[in-house]
Amino acid sequence: MTLSIDCSSLRSIISGLTLASSILLSSSVFAEEGESDGNRYYLERYYQGDISSAQAFMEAVVKKGKWTDRSDKLIILDVRDATEYKRGHPEGAYHFPYPRIYRECVNNTRPEDGGGCNEGTVESIGQDPEDLFLMVEEKFPGKSQRFATLCRTGFRSVLVANILSKPEVYMCELKYEDAALTQCQNEYADRGYTRVSNIWQGFVGQPMAGIISQGGKRYVVGNDQELTPLDLPDGSEAKGFVAFDLDLDNDGGITAADKDGWRYHQGLPYDIRLLPKLKNEAVDDDGYYDMP
């Protein structure tokens, strides 16, 4: 796809993309009250902050084994299901799937698009949030361990980041009510991890919306001239255009390969090996890695 634009517009877009980055990438201040900013889906946030896939790659893969302080090393937790994980994951990423362990698609001969069901789902096997937390806690007992959670587009990874960071609030409220909720909150108080980040682009991603500011108003860069309401993380409202779908691989069409994320937008290397130390023991015991 060829995009023609004048210099004045280009400066506005570059300025706007800088603004977009500042909006979408949250601060490192821990969100005690579950703020709904930072992640691309505007979900409540109990975790430390959001980082790019490029930063996660540098911290967890490039610097692997070269940390000045080993207590500061970053570990990637891939929370996608077994089919997604085995089709490609960051090198060294541990598999802790949530909220589903496995999903059977209508047509399992789908393209190598990162594991998405293009024609619908036949069956989905869910994961209990408390079981997830306990599995991570058993594997990584130190609560200052640095984590970066990763899913397909940055939605499920936020859920896991919240569960790990504030189990007595986020996890307990997902699962319990009344007296059982109070018991859960008492049991998990102060057991959360303090250094959890979310990889906001995900492994495959979605088309990114560049937000620009002109004349005191904010807009989304796009090719659909119909203005639509836009709620920004800082609580303000604006009008926006539908974002561009970019033909990143120049094949003449918009496909899953054109989404922004670890694999497609950043073009970062990934691994298809199922290393024993990285696989999820429960998932492996139930045979989900062997299913299509």
Task: Write a short abstract of this structure.
This protein is of the alpha/beta class and 292 residues long. The chain contains eight helices and eleven strands. Strands 1-7-6-2-3 form a five-stranded parallel beta sheet. Strands 4-5 form a two-stranded antiparallel ribbon. It has a two-stranded antiparallel ribbon with strand order 8-9.
List keywords for this structure.
single chain; 20% strand; Oxidized Rhodanese, domain 1; alpha/beta; five-stranded parallel beta sheet; two-stranded antiparallel ribbon; 292 residues; 11 strands; disordered N terminus
Structure write-up:
- The chain has a domain at 46-207 and 255-290: Rhodanese-like domain (Oxidized Rhodanese, domain 1).
- It has 292 residues and is α/β, with parallel strands linked by helices.
- α5 packs across α6 (167-175) and α6 (167-175) packs antiparallel against α7.
- It has eight helices and eleven strands.
- The model is unreliable at 1-30 (pLDDT under 50).
- The protein is globular and about 55 Å long.
